[in-house]
Design goal:
By secondary structure, the protein is of the alpha/beta class. The chain is built from 12 helices and 8 strands.
Length: 302
């Protein structure tokens, strides 16, 4: 373990919360509501936050809005949470975002999967090397959704960028994850199950020690209960939580995850915590489907 990054590594081996980005009636970011949602997460026991993640509608935010979200998160988190800031797009934009996060006091950045129709494996390494090399003081966490990428490529990246300390692995294949992590170096990185609670039990069995969550916005205790069970190796209890959140996550995953963020915001709206609006290409949940989400949220111990 690299001593410099012990705090960051510990923060990844946890529930890595991806906050939603609430919008005001005029469509702009609502800073007051965003701060309140962050406080709710922190008060609920969450200690790792990822502003500008996919549940935060990263790709629907302008560069100025992404900076604002980072600034609000750093101000609200204070010393209560480690902050893992999402960065991405072209290399200069990602580097600028990472340096902005560093200057505000963030300890890590998560590099979103490159959005490009032609991604070579060596190009993937080059992309992440350019970003990680620009902020050697920060822990860097690649967000891997590319099933073609090999573990050897991640090891190659870390050979030249020792600040690449963790991986958010989001390929929906537990066997592939097990092989990838071992090819890259099981003990070399902190492995985060990047497909949240539905995949956490199977990925933990193969070596993950943390998982991301959008559901945690709605019910922090539910996510933390699953983490506690997985940490202790109590898979029967973890699967009881899995059953508890199963329908909610099925609604999020339906139709290619079209309503992934929508369902979370609908649940928060049903609790009176934020508006339901999302930005295109997402869309609000139809009236006919809202009652089921509200019923699930109301049934959790919140």
């Amino acid at each position: 373990m690299t001593a410099t990054f012990e705090t960051q590594r510990a923060a990844l081996a946890d529930v890595v919360a991806i906050p939603v980005t609430p919008f005001a009636e005029d469509g702009s970011i609502d800073p007051v509501t965003y701060r309140a949602l962050l406080r709710r997460l922190l008060d609920g026991g969450v200690t790792t936050l990822t502003p500008n993640g996919n549940t935060g509608e990263f790709y629907a935010l302008t560069p100025q809005e992404r900076r604002l979200v980072t600034e609000l998160t750093m101000e609200e988190a204070g010393g209560r949470s480690v902050v893992l800031v999402g960065v991405g797009h072209d290399v200069p934009t990602a580097v600028d975002s990472a340096r902005h996060a560093r200057d505000l006091g963030a300890q890590m950045v998560m590099v979103h999967q490159p959005v490009h129709p032609y991604v070579s494996q060596s190009g993937w390494v080059d992309y992440h090397r350019a970003i990680a090399g620009a902020v050697p003081e920060l822990g860097v966490v690649p967000y891997i959704r590319n099933a073609q990428l090999t573990g050897a490529r991640l090891a190659e990246l870390a050979d030249t960028c020792p600040n690449v300390i963790g991986v958010k692995y989001a390929v929906p294949d537990a066997a592939k994850f097990a092989a990838f992590s071992r090819d890259a170096g099981q003990e070399r990185f902190v492995w985060v199950a990047g497909l949240a609670e539905p995949y956490a039990p199977s990925y933990f069995s193969a070596g993950a020690t943390g998982f991301t969550s959008g559901l945690v916005n709605v019910a922090p205790s539910v996510s933390l209960n699953m983490l506690e069970a997985l940490r202790s190796g109590d898979y029967p209890t973890a699967m009881k939580v899995w059953e508890q959140i199963r329908r909610f996550e099925e609604l999020r995953a339906a139709n290619g995850s079209a309503n992934n963020v929508t369902v979370v915001k609908e649940a928060l709206s049903s609790l009176g915590l934020c508006r339901r609006e999302v930005r295109p290409p997402s869309r609000p949940l139809p009236e006919s489907e809202r009652a089921e989400v509200a019923a699930i949220a109301a049934g959790w111990s919140i």
